[in-house]
Amino acid sequence: MAKPDFTPQDALVAMMITVSASDATIRTSELLTIQSIVNHLPIFADFDEDRLESIAQTVFDLLEEEDGLDAILGLIRDALPVSHRETAYALACDVAAADGKVYQTELELLREIRYEFEIDPLHAAAIERGARARHLKL
Q: At 26, phi and psi to the nearest 5?
């Protein structure tokens, strides 16, 4: 498979889709969270939403390959400025928390992202707590 050219916004979308797909079930709440993030966050102001489908297909294709997750994380890391790695982690946490339960596969992926993106443990804990707070149900 040829290496796709990801913009920083593409990389953030790929991160969210990867987290959603990590437990083999893409939930409606996760899709709605991704759509809401893309529609409302300033970082996506000039993002072409028509790219969502091709980014998702790239993620799905790579996940079918051996070492596909490593390839996806590499693509994301290469496309993102270092200054936005915590942003990627925050979006990943929001998608993982979107349905009110973080599954084991999602926890393992978040751990891998923290390691691969060299997220400071204290920063990661704060980001995770913020995601939990935003997605609590009454």
A: -95, 110
Q: What is the pLDDT of residue 2?
A: 53
DSSP the chain: -PPP---HHHHHHHHHHHHHHTTS---HHHHHHHHHHHHH-GGGTT--GGGHHHHHHHHHHHHTSTTHHHHHHHHHHHHS-GGGHHHHHHHHHHHHHTTS---HHHHHHHHHHHHHTT--HHHHHHHHHHHHHHT---
Are the CB atoms for 1 and 39 separated by under 8 Å? Answer: no
pLDDT digits (tens, 9 = 90+) for 69-106: 999 999 999 999 999 999 999 999 999 999 888 889 99
Encoded tokens for 82: 């270092």
The tokens describing 87, both together, are 């942003």
